[in-house]
Design brief:
Elements (H helix, E strand, L loop, with lengths): L7 E2 L6 E5 L8 E5 L4 E9 L1 E4 L4 E4 L3 E5 L5 E5 L5 E8 L4 H7 L6 E4 L2 H20 L4 H22 L7 H17 L6 H7 L4 H12 L3 H17 L6 H7 L5 H12 L3 H8 L11
Helix pairs in contact: 2-3, 5-6, 8-9
């Protein structure tokens, strides 16, 4: 067992804790133990070996472990470097998310890139602020931040070895997203947007897909269809008006894409989702 109490950042009623552990020296050994809480921990520096009942799991700098509640474990540090952890503890997690995070059953093992490490630490610091600050609605905010942390880990695992964008590339894709939001009604050409941002069309498509998760064309189409559904809820817009206002070539093209995505035509979607309101009183 640990011989010293680790510094915690939590309130008496909080179900969350952030533990910034001091560096463990080389060749340190923690005896097997288990916690009633769940744990997500970043190896901030150094290396260690997690000791499980059936095997050993090696963790290097910028790798993350996930322990469901009640999993017995210990660890040994590297004989040269030692190790330092940043750990978030929490009391509850939906069963499905626990299964997703336990990608090396019974624990989870994730490898983060430098940008992801910065994102991880930022989320953890925000959780710590909520825990110690006595802020209103802190439990709800901690829950939201924990979900953000879980999404970061799950996406990093799905990403595999695909690198994140550097700051300049990220800024360029954000500019593209702004253009799409502001000019979705125009007949935008992806190749033209790529040239405006200083990229070849294929390189821009690769960067966009890496950052957003879908191709630029798929994102722009989804954005237009989302707006078309809002417009279909207003009787003053005909389906032809909507198609032309959103930059589709013609109403047939709009209807074809809408049906392919939703399974019904725009007219059928409007009939299902739009009910004319009764006459409202004009009296003050």
């Amino acid at each position: 067992m640990f011989e010293e109490k680790l510094p915690e950042a939590q309130t008496e009623k909080s179900r969350y804790a952030v533990i910034a552990e001091p560096p463990y020296p080389p060749s340190w050994c923690a005896m097997p133990h288990q916690h009633p809480l769940y744990e997500i921990g970043l190896v901030k520096a150094g290396k260690c070996t997690i000791l499980l009942p059936s095997r050993r799991e090696f963790f290097d700098t910028h790798e993350v472990f996930f322990f469901p509640s009640g999993v017995a474990h210990g660890f040994t540090t590297d004989h040269e470097a030692g190790v330092q952890f940043v750990v978030v503890q929490f009391s509850d997690l939906p069963t499905q998310l626990t299964e997703f995070l336990s990608n090396r059953s019974p624990i989870g093992h994730f490898r983060l890139l430098p940008l992801e490490v910065s994102m991880f630490l930022d989320i953890v610091h925000r959780i710590q602020k909520e825990c110690v600050g006595g802020l209103s609605w802190s439990e709800l905010q901690c829950q939201a931040l924990l979900q953000e942390l879980v999404v970061l880990l799950l996406r990093s695992h799905k990403r595999g070895e695909l690198p994140y964008l550097n700051p300049e590339q990220k800024e360029a894709v954000e500019r593209a997203l702004h253009i799409f939001r502001e000019r979705a009604h125009e007949n935008l050409k992806i190749n033209q947007i790529a040239r405006e941002l200083g990229f070849s069309p294929q390189h821009f498509r690769d960067l966009f897909h890496r950052y957003v998760g879908v191709s630029p064309k798929a994102y722009l189409t989804a954005l237009k269809l989302q707006r078309s559904k809002c417009m279909l809820l207003h009787a003053e817009y005909s389906i032809t008006d909507i198609a032309l206002r959103l930059g589709f070539g013609n109403v047939q093209q709009f209807s074809k894409i809408f049906r392919k995505t939703t399974g019904v035509s725009p007219a059928e979607w409007r009939k299902t989702n739009f009910s004319p309101h009764p006459q409202l009183s004009q009296r003050p």
